[in-house]
Protein 1
Amino acid sequence: MKGLRDVPSVELARLRDALHVGLVSAPLTRPGLDALGLRRLADRAAVFAGLPRDAALTLIEAVLDERADPPPAIELVWSGPEGRSGWASPTADVVRQLFDRAERSVLLAGYSFDHGAEILAPLHDAMTKRGATVDVYLDVETAGRDVTDLDAYVRNEVGRFLSAEWPWTPKPAVFVDPRTAARARAGQHASMHAKCVVVDERWALVGSANFTNRGQTRNIEVGAVIDDIAFARAVVSQFRSATRSGVFRPWLDGEEGEGERRG
């Protein structure tokens, strides 16, 4: 049975209006739809077979409502040189624009960082000038064989990240997957390898670029920035769920609590 996918919305709206004013009666039939000049709908009369007027109207309204929601806006993002016909947005520009846009919240997950005083400065502005909360999900290098206190090691690594890449106050919340620091048997080591930004639970950048000078400007990297509330909230929910489940642990640096964890 053919569905309604390729039936123009204008025809569905005409049928809805015709049902409302009694120009056509339900159950809808092919001859009745033909008489209204709705030929594509006439070919799909079986969709409405046996439906009373209210049920047919509910079906039509549901299809029209779904079509009224704009599809997600997706923009190609690229680092490094492009061909002459390239049209992607530069990664560094997109990251800066996202940070500049933040009003309420930013989730930032990255495997590697450098030049933080430059790359992350607009994010610090979002915190201090607009009150946005910032959560950073960070990878930590594997501890050496001589490390006996893994918590102290992670606290120190978080402190080093904040000192090197976030030379301001206030500090963001920092979350670490302790497995990234722990030494494991061969083939079992894990990394926090995600690279993404979610702003105000609406805009999400997901791609291959680290938050480094090379990753943002010189390496060949590809990503997508997606303007879609449902997708952005799904990404945030995924990280928050993993945090609640203990996959990630929250930490403070030495400046703001002598290494105590955020509760």
Note: Confidence is low (pLDDT under 50) at residues 253-263.
Protein 2
Amino acid sequence: MSLVKVSGNASGTGIFTIASPNSNTDRTLTLPDATGTAVLDTATQTLTNKTLGSGLVMSVSAITAGTAVASTSGTSIDFTGIPSWVKRITVAMQTVSTNGSSNYLIRIGNTTVTSSGYASVMNYVNPGANSCTGSADSTGFLLTKDINSGTAFTAIATIVLQTSGFYVSTFVGNNGVNGAGFFGSGLLNLGSTLDRVRITTVNGTDTFDAGSINILYE
């Protein structure tokens, strides 16, 4: 669902709910203090063919959730078909683990997944050992360090289109209660608009054996 908020008019604030914000059909609204019908563009979520009343302001927020994938098999989890208008992707990982000790990372791409050119740095904080260390990677947005087989990893990673072709990432995660914390950021000049996200490991051969992963985009 998407909320359209109309404010700043003489009659106060109106809240309208639009079903299926990413459908292929236009959605129409009747706005207070404005004449005619407002047509909301399906892809860019912009208001067109509309003269608003004096002082009327309209804002739109549409967040689309993907289909959660059980990370219980395979060497990578892919989300494809991301629309070209998307400016921000959130990757949500819930108690994910693998059968090996290769660190986790996220890769993005257009048609194919890009595995080079990343400027990625992550930090690893271990409260029990009163220590902090870090690592860098150029093959993806790095998420972990010194991960072990069967370790349950939970994280939120955000990937944002900063300007044409350039994607900036940031994340925070942990490996369970009383465990270690992970955080970091990265940059990639993809040179095009992404249409896919992959969650995998550095060596690309460890197999996922627990957890769930999903994406949200807007």
Note: Residues 70 and 212 are 4 Å apart (CA to CA).
Protein 3
Amino acid sequence: MTREQFLAGLKRSLGGMSEAEQKEILYDYAEHFRMGAADGKSEEQIAQALGNPRLLGRSYRIDSLLEEPAEGGGVKAGSVVRAVFASVSLGFFNLIFVLGPFLGLVGIMIGLWACAVALPLCGLAVVLASILSAAAPFLQGYIDLGGIHPAVTFFAGIGVSGLGVLAALGMWELSKLFIKMIAAYVRFNARVVTRRR
């Protein structure tokens, strides 16, 4: 592959990135060719050492997605999801090593969020049942507190609601950490696949 073929293939695969980013990347690779030629290497040898321009371009696009800033710093969750699916295009094994673990971990996060949301709702239901049991004696046939005094269930419900709020706050922080870790893993995987430094 000649210098022109390599750079043209790289430019095609950088589509979707800003013009400034494309120019900078193309300049860097043109410099690789210039320095390799100064060392007496042929264009084919330099192109072979640099790797597949299509995969390199996709790797840079993944990096570009993962550098989109979110409010308050960090990475946008939508950008991470797009980067995960873009990384699948780097090779068949990324279906196994990127997409598979990502979908499994997303399932775990959804389950944890469901628990974090259910806890305060259950606590509020217990508080409401305690209030109705004590305030409306005609509902006692419909509300069974299991022989526990309504005051005990009232405060237990408040405790469960508080625990649920803490769980939701913890899940918020865990979700931010999850997004950062997935972004770092996708970036690492893209560089390993394309042998970029």
Note: Residues 92-194 form one domain.
Protein 4
Amino acid sequence: MTPIARRLAMLAMTAGLLFATAAARADVKTGVDAWNQGDYARAIEAWRPLAIAGDADAQFNLGQAYKLGRGVPMDLPVALEWFGRAAAQNHEKARDNYGLLLFQQGRREEAMPYIQASAERGEPRAQYVYAIALFNGDLAARDWVRAYAFMTRASQSGLSQATTSLAQMDNYVTEADRARGLALATAMANGQAPPATAAPPPAMVAASPPPAVPPMVAAAPPVAPPGLAPQPRPPVNIRDRQAPPPAAATPAPAGRWRVQLGAFSEAGRAQALWRSLSARVTGLSAFQPYYVSGNGLTRLQVGPLASSAEAQRLCAQISRAGTPCIVKAP
């Protein structure tokens, strides 16, 4: 092939990729338009193949759909999975929702790095949760100045829970620290990063609350009102759901076939997915999970299955529950 021909071939390939990207954006927009019209099933139909292919916006949108139960059954573990996939691609709204949903489901240590990052980006619900962690010294070093600043910003956004908590803080935070917290909140509002506050000198130790002061408790992140953002972003609304008890499982046959449910950079996410799916997919708990490590990834596989046909049937059942999968030959 001549140099000119090679260059023309490369230009054609690049143009094809650009058209593919434009088509993907159009499909995401098609889903958003359908969602806004109340046609949730058509929105899911537009987003699902893009989400499986790795589009972060479509993954975030599917997470929102499963969280709200629109177009699909409400399923917080599946929502968490899709948020996690988009968050791994640095999708900011997905990272916000992933951290808040982890926190709501009791996985507080895992959630806190996401909560802190979201709070520092200005997400009001994360600011509320992070402020309480800073005030209590729970999963974060105690820092009343920063706690007061973050709670002030959350209150200024209109969160009634933050306004109530700020009034409680006023009973314990000194006037000097409140002034420093308000100044820091103003700096945060102007886009300046909130620095860590140095520990108080020995003379200020008495300003700390006595042991009898009860800690503030964040039972769950506040819920944001529904509403679509201008870009492909379905509404935010965290709700609880109790998973139905798994049906009695039939023992799985022997065999060498497996079904792969995903590959993750963190082994804990593979384990969390197995816990979620084995509780929701009828009969799945009868099979054995395999955590196969390699090339920096942990692959979650389930088996053993006696034949390709059985593996295909199981994969189809799992896919209907909202999790894509592939059959692995022996």
Note: The first helix runs from residue 3 to 36.
